[in-house]
Write a structure and sequence with these properties.
- The chain has a four-stranded mixed sheet. A three-stranded antiparallel sheet has the order 3-6-12, with no helix packed on it.
- It is globular and about 50 Å long.
- It has five helices and twelve strands.
- It has helices at about 25-30, 95-105, 135-140, 150-155, 190-195; strands at about 1-5, 5-10, 55-60, 60-65, 80-85, 85-90, 225-230, 240, 250-255, 270-275, 285, 290.
- The longest helix is centred in the middle third of the chain and has 10 residues, at about 135-140.
- By secondary structure, it is of the alpha+beta class.
């Protein structure tokens, strides 16, 4: 249990209800804590409408500092990471995109449940959820890609100027304002970029209905947590190139926070973990693609 501004958060607690093993979240609690004054209609400022295939964004090769000294202990030590260029999906994989894979018999359909977006009328542009890590990897392979590593995900999430990385420890109005006092506007930036506990209305939303990062990526924070390929493990202090995490494990990493996450969980450095076979209502994903190696 890690204390954060007078609260306690157990890493990995927010996966949502699952099939088989997994950690359950509280949908009722999400609604109770929602600030209606900050809730925004899903289609209010949509600038990108996804098709039935991923739209890819090129991420340039580079070196960056992974982790933060201002976060939880598992986000340290800050260390240098070098990555080659790659492609990443502009949005979280949608129900319509995932359905192509199911119809091609390359993917398994998520479980049928009112809280799972797949198979629900009118949710074609919602992120597919209730898929475990293996199911996410199957879809990634279907579109010629794979799941991102933790390092690739964090690098892409923080890329560009004027993104939420501008506040290294992205905070939210709910966490650092005292009861009965005006909310600190310095901590409200996340509302523009992410669906999370304060503004989500206790529910998932269609992709690309918050602002994109300056390189055009949507929902890297909030809406649904995103599977990455790494098993849970500590960071190294040494500089590394293209790290992939531990060779095996029982707990898998997810990134970005979801619609039921507190603001301190919807940060680019925050690390959450769940069982790899969890099919939580807060779990989604986006694939990456390797670029051809120049000869």
């Amino acid at each position: 249990i890690l204390p954060v501004s007078g609260r306690s958060v157990k890493k990995g607690k927010s996966a949502g209800k699952t099939s088989g093993k997994g950690i359950r979240g509280s949908k009722t609690d999400a609604g109770a804590k929602t600030d209606a004054a900050l809730a925004i209609e899903a289609g209010a400022a949509r600038s990108f409408v996804p098709g039935d295939k991923p739209d890819w964004v090129r991420v340039p090769a580079g070196t960056f500092q992974m982790g933060t000294k201002f976060g939880d202990v598992d986000e340290q030590p800050v260390h240098k990471v070098t990555l080659p260029a790659f492609m990443i999906a502009r949005t979280e994989v949608t129900v319509a995109q995932y359905e192509r894979c199911v119809k091609a018999k390359k993917c398994r359909a998520p479980m049928a449940d009112p809280d799972c977006n797949y198979g629900q009328k009118g949710r074609e542009d919602f992120p597919v959820n209730c898929a475990n890590r293996a199911m996410a990897a199957e879809y990634a392979a279907f579109v010629g890609g794979r799941l991102p590593t933790e390092a690739e995900w964090e690098y892409a999430a923080g890329l560009g100027e004027g993104t939420v990385k501008g506040r290294q420890y992205v905070l939210a109005v709910e966490d650092y304002s005292e009861p009965g006092k005006p909310k600190n506007p310095d901590y409200s930036e996340i509302n523009d970029y992410a669906w999370y506990r304060i503004n989500s209305g206790g529910k998932c939303h269609p992709v690309a209905t918050r602002k994109p990062s300056s390189v055009g990526l949507y929902d890297m924070l909030g809406n649904v947590m995103e599977w990455v390929s790494d098993w849970m493990g500590p960071y190294t202090a040494d500089p590394v190139t293209s790290p992939t995490g531990p060779l095996d494990g029982s707990m898998a990493q997810v990134r970005g926070g979801g619609w039921n996450s507190h603001g301190f969980e919807a940060r680019i450095h925050d690390r959450q973990y769940v069982e790899a076979d969890a099919t939580g209502i807060y779990l989604g994903f986006r694939p990456v693609k390797d670029l051809p190696t120049r000869k």
